[in-house]
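R.M. (postdoc): so does anyone remember the format we settled on? I'll just put the structure tokens first.
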């Protein structure tokens, strides 16, 4: 067995190898969430990419830019003479959300064996490098290169970066699984609060003399910045030595709470009914939430219109008042980012006390009530209460993401929870397509049928409530995993050998590792991730002030 020196790293293996990341004496487990946040705050910019769409549609100026008004999507992929349409560039978002789920599913098993440092560094290369490639695509006006860089390559970085911390955090915090994953995944929800204002400022700073937004340079600069920050997070990871447990805590088998101390292999886990029921639970919760996110700003404007600024009829509003209405709707977007992020930590922490299944029961029951009441609020012009309902929904949307890794660990054990979580994230990819398409198409159908715009969302909200009811049933059907699916002691030992866990630390090291004090390093690490996050919160609150 290799020894573990006091610096917290194994003496053998390359810098990216899992053996080099085993914690030794003097390491404090509360440093691990900061590494996770460093990665998630970067890839969380995915939710802020909408700030690029309109500037990307105005990159070309002069007569050449107007030649291809009716160009096809295929023509847009390769043309250098026409401005791209907003729908064409916004497909980048769909691409990296789909690739997030696909890459997490494909390489989740590899990640368990490779360790968080190697996976996190590759995620940094893909997400940061993908943004640089996308910037080159914008600079050369090649849409296919934007899709390839930010969409496909960036999507791989998204998937690997998203699941990289999960298994590590759960093993460091067996006593607080929900809270630990909530910290990391809170970062994903808050990434846009930090990244979007930076992107807007950089596009203004790099604007050309002709007034063309500096999108290309902004993407490249942010790509390099994200690569550096994510790499620091990746190299900061330490994994818990085999056999390590928090002081004074012992695992307790509790069948009633459906928490197992055994482990299911990935190859079997995804074939169980429990996996697919939880897949449906996540997919339906996300579909409902992302449907609201995708149309929040226009929904608020169309449902309430001039009532947002205290005017009864939209026909009498001045241009300045119209701008105030738009600002109020933008304020809702700021609140959505804030509650989406904070809900992840809140609900995941709550799940440590009431259980994962009961937490999802809360999401579905409360969500059904809120969705079915929202049309009534719209009919009565109760805009403030409508906004409160939307914010509550978004906490549960984010909370669903943060709670599901702990749900999987409870059901399938911790040995391969990162890989199992990666497979489950295909539910997010599916919901990322279904939710926005569903709400947009139903809205358009209602408008085409002559329905007033303030009533066009009623049927959609009722349908989303119906989807939540189906999710409630799926959650009810989740039962403990059958004994036949769990790994035997020999199979578990073999898997730990593949994961380089059987030889990474001695029993003595496992008993003393990670007992260190927090120290100045811990304070600085938390300040490094906490100050940017709190700055983003302050900006989001400032935008939300327009609502009031």
């Amino acid at each position: 067995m290799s020894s573990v020196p006091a610096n917290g790293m194994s003496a053998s293996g390359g810098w990216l190898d899992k053996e080099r990341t085993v914690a030794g004496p003097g390491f404090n487990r509360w440093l691990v969430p900061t590494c996770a946040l460093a990665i998630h705050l970067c890839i969380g910019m995915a939710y802020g990419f909408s700030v690029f769409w309109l500037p990307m549609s105005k990159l070309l100026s002069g007569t050449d830019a107007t030649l291809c008004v009716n160009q096809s999507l295929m023509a847009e992929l390769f043309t250098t003479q026409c401005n791209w349409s907003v729908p064409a560039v916004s497909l980048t978002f769909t691409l990296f959300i789909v690739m997030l789920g696909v890459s997490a599913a494909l390489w989740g098993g590899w990640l368990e064996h490779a360790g968080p440092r190697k996976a996190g560094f590759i995620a940094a290369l893909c997400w940061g490098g993908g943004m640089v490639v996308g910037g080159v695509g914008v600079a050369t006006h090649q849409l296919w290169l934007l899709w390839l860089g930010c969409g496909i390559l960036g999507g791989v970085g998204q998937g690997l970066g998203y699941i990289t911390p999960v298994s590590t955090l759960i093993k460091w915090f067996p006593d607080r699984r929900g809270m630990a994953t909530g910290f990391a995944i809170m970062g994903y929800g808050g990434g846009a609060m930090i990244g979007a204002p930076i992107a807007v400022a950089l596009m203004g700073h790099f604007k050309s003399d002709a007034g063309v937004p500096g999108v290309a340079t902004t993407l490249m600069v942010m790509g390099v910045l994200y690569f550096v920050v994510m790499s620091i997070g990746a190299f900061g990871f330490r994994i818990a030595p085999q056999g390590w447990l928090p002081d004074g805590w012992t695992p307790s088998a509790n069948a009633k709470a459906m928490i197992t101390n055994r482990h299911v292999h990935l190859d079997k886990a995804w074939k169980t009914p429990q996996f697919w029921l939880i897949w449906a639970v996540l997919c339906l919760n996300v579909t409902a939430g992302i449907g609201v996110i995708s149309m929040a700003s226009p929904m608020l404007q169309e449902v309430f219109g001039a009532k947002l600024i205290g005017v009864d009829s939209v026909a009498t509003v001045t241009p300045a008042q119209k701008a105030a209405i738009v600002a109020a709707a933008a304020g809702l977007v700021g609140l959505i980012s804030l509650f989406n992020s904070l809900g992840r930590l809140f609900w995941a922490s709550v799940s440590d006390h009431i259980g994962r299944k009961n937490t999802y029961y809360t999401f579905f029951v409360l969500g059904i009530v809120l969705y079915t009441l929202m049309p009534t609020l719209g009919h009565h012009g109760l805009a403030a209460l409508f906004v409160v309902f939307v914010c509550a929904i978004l906490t549960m949307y984010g909370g669903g993401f943060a709670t599901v890794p702990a749900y999987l660990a409870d059901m399938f054990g911790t040995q391969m929870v990162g890989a199992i979580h990666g497979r489950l994230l295909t539910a997010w990819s599916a919901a990322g397509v279904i939710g926005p398409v569903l709400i947009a198409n139903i809205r358009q159908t209602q408008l085409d049928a002559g329905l007033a715009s303030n009533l066009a969302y009623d049927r959609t909200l009722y349908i989303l409530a119906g989807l939540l009811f189906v999710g409630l049933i799926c959650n009810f059907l989740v039962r403990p995993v059958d004994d036949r699916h769990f790994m035997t002691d020999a199979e578990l030992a073999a898997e730990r050998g593949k994961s380089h866990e059987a030889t990474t630390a001695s029993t003595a090291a496992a008993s003393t590792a990670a007992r260190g004090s927090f120290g100045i390093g811990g304070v600085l690490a938390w300040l490094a991730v906490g100050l940017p996050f709190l700055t983003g919160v302050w900006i989001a609150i400032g935008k939300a002030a327009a609502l009031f």
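R.M.: ...and that's the designed sequence above, right after the tokens. Also worth knowing: Residues 1-12, 502-512 have pLDDT under 50 and may be disordered. The chain has 19 helices and no strands.
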